Amino acid sequence: MEGEGPLKGLRVLDLTQAMAGPMATMTLGDLGAEVIKVEPLSGDQTRSWAPPYMDGMSSYYLSANRNKKSIAVDLKDPIGQELLRKLAKDSDVIIENFRPGTMEKFGLSYEEARKLNRKIIYCSLSGYGQTGPSREWPGYDLTVLAYSGLLSLNAEEGRPPIKFGVPIADITAGLFSVIAVLAALRHRDATEEGQFIDMSMLDANFSILTHQALGYFSTGKNPRHLGSAHSNIAPYQVFRTADGYIAVAVGTEKLWKTFCSIIGRDDLTVNPIFLTNVDRVQNRDKLVDEINRAFSSFRTQELFQKFLDSGIPAAPINSVEQAVNAPQIMERNMLVDMEAPYGKIRILGTPFKMSATPASVRLHPPMLGENTAEILRNIGYSHEEISNLVEKRIVNGNTGTDRKKE
Description:
It is built from 18 helices and 13 strands. The two termini are 29 Å apart.
């Protein structure tokens, strides 16, 4: 995909691992920022989150690290810390996701970074935030989902909660971080002042409890475990068909009547317990039983086409294989094939479709330390100095894949 993006000319210093931070910095990279990924000598931990591999690289790592350049640095060494300060001096944004207090040990707290560059925007993305009694807790997707209350919602009655198939708490926190950084950049444009962003995975995910939290405030009761069903609308969930499953969202009374006609159950529209959405929500279990019986005589694609023709929101439950081969995904350029030193890879495209400054996928996810020499030359290091840093193991000059290709 071609294009340079609206953030062209912006430099982001990326001191993040796993998913939340890398998602944030990758998104900024998609939008045109130059992202310098500073890794430990052993690399981002997700380089070893495998299998599966793609051409010797961890698929998990590849998923969140395109549009970046990699340099591997020993940040426990004073020389490595000085190198980091030089990078920070010429950066616009720093994003880190270490536990609170770690960056102080590396000599690059927000206060130190601001001395080097008063316009710096510094985002600390942690599990539970920089303040509060839980600030030291390690924060991972599953534990934050659990503590925020979100995981409790993702269950069916009488069955245990189940996590989502992607690290949704990480992704949410990463995207909230991007929003905060863009807002801080807007403020800097107006004032020429940078600022510190204290982004908590817990805060980000707690905030998306939205109507479920307000429902608790209204009733004093925890939400029911409804599986795929909506707490305030019915029918609005996944139903079984004769050969699979289909998701249906019937959000208005007009659609309700059309829906009943399609499935051959006009009688439901005059049943007193199903007359209005309020009635249907209150009698959800009986409604679901009626609909499941009706759906059992339809095949998924047949029913989907009927709903589609009638304007009822519905979709078959695509597998990942079906999703990545869907015509709409292809048409929207949401799959990108790239050449990389380790082979040809296929990654996901960017959702930012912008008329004047389109986002783009420009750089393959880097091998560990792949851009070390380039990055150091750009901040004034000579060939001899770079060789000396490599020899002393301050930086990692040995690039390569995470394992030998099979």
